[in-house]
Design a protein that fits this description.
Helix 1 runs parallel beside helix 3. The longest helix has 23 residues. By secondary structure, the chain is mainly α. The chain has one domain. It has a two-stranded parallel ribbon with strand order 1-2. The relative contact order is 0.21. The protein starts with a helix and ends with a strand.
């Protein structure tokens, strides 16, 4: 990962945290987070839920997909923010 990518990722994560902080401070009714890429949220689900979701689409003997390291920081940061934001969030 290049320096520009690290800086952009850090700025994106800070922006997301700031959006949640501002929504909390303003007592907003909710928050909408829009992304261009599919971060593969289902790949971060607990194993049993992930298996129930993917098994109908898998070839016999296939492996469940693993979480993409490219989006892991984003999904983790979003999960942390969601834990402390008691309002609806659309993503």
């Amino acid at each position: 990962m290049g320096a520009e990518h690290r800086e952009r990722k850090a700025a994106n994560l800070q922006w997301m945290k700031q959006a949640f902080a501002e929504a909390k401070a303003a007592d907003s009714k909710g928050l909408v987070i829009m992304v261009q890429a599919n971060p593969g949220f289902e790949n971060f689900w607990p194993p049993a839920a992930k298996a129930r979701y993917f098994i109908p689409f898998m070839l016999r003997g296939g492996k469940l997909p693993s979480a993409s390291a490219a989006f892991e920081d984003y999904v983790k940061a979003l999960a942390e923010q969601l834990e402390s934001f008691d309002k609806p969030v659309a993503r």
